Amino acid sequence: MNKQNKIVSPFLVSIFFLLGIIVFSGGKWERNKYDNFYDISVPTKISANQLKIDVLHYDLNIDLDADNSLLKGDVIISGVIIDSTLTSIDLNFYDNLGISSLTLNGKKAEYSNTDNMLQIKKGGTRDTFNIEVVYQGTPKHAGLAGFVFGEINKTNVVYNLSEPNYASSWFPCNDIPSDKAFLDMRITNDSSQVSASNGILEDIKINGTRKTYHWKTLYPIATYLIAVYSAHYVTFSDKYISQDRKDTLSILYYVFPRDLKNAKIDLEDQSEYLDFFAKTFGEYPFIKEKYGVAEFLWQYGAMEHQTLTGIGSNFVNGKKLFSDVFIHELSHHWWGDAVSPATWKDIWLNEGFATYSEALYAEHLGGSAALQATMISKYKDDFEGKLYNPVNSLFGPTVYDKGAWVLHMLRRETGDSLFFKILRTWFETYKYKNASTADFRKMCQVITNKDFTKFFAQWVYNGEGKIEVNYSTAIESAPGGYKLKLLIEQTQKEYNTYFFPLDFKFTSDNGDDTYKTFYIDFRTKEFEVVLKDLPRKIEADPNGWLLASIKKVEK
Q1: Of 212, 232, 252, which residue constitutes the final position of a domain?
Q2: How confident is the model at residue 393 (pLDDT cuts 50, 70, 90)?
Q3: Which residues pair with 490 in a beta bridge?
Q4: H-type helices in 209-288, by residue range?
């Protein structure tokens, strides 16, 4: 990465940190049971019945006893049955939380709750359902954090990190990204605490020593993006004016008192980031709500909770060293929050897009040199596994950095005009919805009128690693100049034959540059080109468009 205040690559920050291996649990540091945070899969069981319902609304009431790490919950889940073959209404909910009451459409219902599957007998329910669950307990550590009762400077800090599907560790829900719903969130805590969540603040009610914040979403939200932050925060704000000048968006910041001065420095550019992404992708998708940033105690990165990004407190230092983290998480509000993945197999549509958004912002500030330097910072010699359906490596470098490289190479294949048209159309078409990798490929083909079957096969679905190429040259005099023979040989083992355009720059003794592009569609291919002047320097892929290791060899 190469931006003004950048010292850490997007992967090292947004992955190597975005979902880390040490988390807060019950106010104590606790090493995650996972030795390597790349090895995070989607362990929550998903039943066929979960795909036969559509949750429309969560009315979630959370009462926090932070001193005792106790959560009391009362949630009303409203939805519809979309498949008549439904045998039971299945939700996800961890069985360590004790259910004291469960009703279906106002009547006590029969249910079973084992591991993380809550199955409710539907009785005579045919079309719509309203399920109320009253429960309490201490949420168990789940995934990379789950729901956390922590402490800083002898004051309580409560937050959650539910990605990919650990929201069910603290409230019953249909914990799949494709079932987005509206949300009312009421958080009750000690009156000294400030509580923040998604959407807009409806009201604050005080009852003695207790205070309840009521937050509401005007846009649908996936369960993994639902947020609870409650701490002794101090707040400050900024504003962003929409592109059409009709809306003023509040930008709200929730920080620990000790970090207020530093946070005002580190976070002062959020409105500029918003303006750039709105111009590049389309207007900020939650313009009627807010954008916010809240500090939390997870020290390995950030989380793009919808309209309220969580930032690890160690990224707030007043030196703007981690601007890429803030840029990455904000861009997720287009890629992940508004356009959400159809399944977790499609996670690169979140993380690859957000990582490339950092590169785009670098280019915005520093031009093509900054873009190229940023992509070099994302380069690895050993990207492991396939981009689509990364199985046990949802948060590994392949998803983030290789995902960004795929978009970078797609841009080279389409040209800037069509590439940015693809992004804007993708956003506008699937905003507030879910979309798959197959949907994205179709979008690319429709807009460019070009077949991307091979491109997606080699870079997304089937190919692993990167291109590895050796090339050799032979030059001889020819009428009108010099004839250059160019032999291209692919040597990678992970994938037999890549199809790609390969640019060369030939620099003559007088300093003139000649550019030629060769399309590679065989593992070994030879070309001839006539040059006016004898090239003293030959560069392959001079502008850094390919995820490739290219070496010149002597024949």
Answers
A1: 232
A2: confident
A3: 469
A4: 260-266, 270-281
Read off the tokens for 415: 């040209």
Give tens-digit pLDDT for 5-46.
333 343 333 333 333 322 322 222 222 222 344 445 555 578
H or E segment and range at residue 14: helix 10-14
- Tell me the C-alpha distance between 119 and 35, whole Å: 33
Which uninterrupted H or E stretch holds 76? strand 70-81
HSE-up of residue 159 (Cα within 13 Å, Cβ side): 33
Q: What is the separation, in whole angstroms, between the first and last Cα of the chain?
A: 36
- What is the C-alpha separation between 63 and 70, in angstroms, rounded? 8
Q: What's the mean pLDDT in 242-266?
A: 98
Q: What mean pLDDT is predicted for residues 356-365?
A: 98
The structure tokens listed for 52 are: 């036969």
Per the structure, the count of domains in the chain is 2
Who has greater pLDDT, 204 or 31?
204
Q: Is the peptide bond before 164 cis (omega within 30 degrees of 0)?
A: yes
CATH (domain of 544): 2.60.40.1840
| The two three-digit tokens of residue 308, written as one number | 């309220």
Handedness of CA 123, 128, 132, 133 (dihedral sign): positive
In a domain, 36, yes or no: no
Residue 214 has pLDDT above 90, yes or no: yes
- How many Cβ atoms from other residues are within 10 Å of residue 531's Cβ? 18
96 domain-assigned: yes
The predicted structure's pLDDT at residue 43: 55
In this structure, are residues 444 and 421 in contact, taking their beta carbons and an 8 Å threshold?
Answer: no
Give the residues across from 501 on adjacent strands: 519
What are the tens digits of pLDDT across the range 457-493? 999 999 999 999 999 999 999 888 999 999 999 999 9
Residue 475 φ then ψ, to 5°: -125, 135
Report if residue 248 sits inside a domain. no
Distance CA 138, CA 159 (A): 13
Q: 305 burial class (0-12, 13-18, 19+ CB within 10 angstroms)?
A: buried
pLDDT above 90 covers a percentage of the chain that reads 88
Q: What is the DSSP letter of 511?
A: S
Q: What is the pLDDT of residue 311?
A: 97
Residue 3 pLDDT greater than 50, yes or no: no
- Classify 7 in phi/psi space as left (phi over 0), alpha (psi -120 to 50) or beta: alpha
Output the pLDDT for position 32: 29
Residue 194 lies in a domain: yes
For residue 41, give both structure tokens: 């899969």
**CATH code, 164:** 2.60.40.1730
Q: Find the domain containing 211 and state its range.
A: 46-232
Q: In what helix (H) or strand (E) does residue 234 lie, and over which residues does it extend?
A: strand 234-241
pLDDT in tens, 181-194: 999 999 999 999 99
186, 202, 232 - which closes a domain: 232
Residue 367 belongs to what H/E stretch?
Answer: helix 348-377
Q: The tokens of 67 are what?
A: 């001193």
Residue 282: its H or E element? none
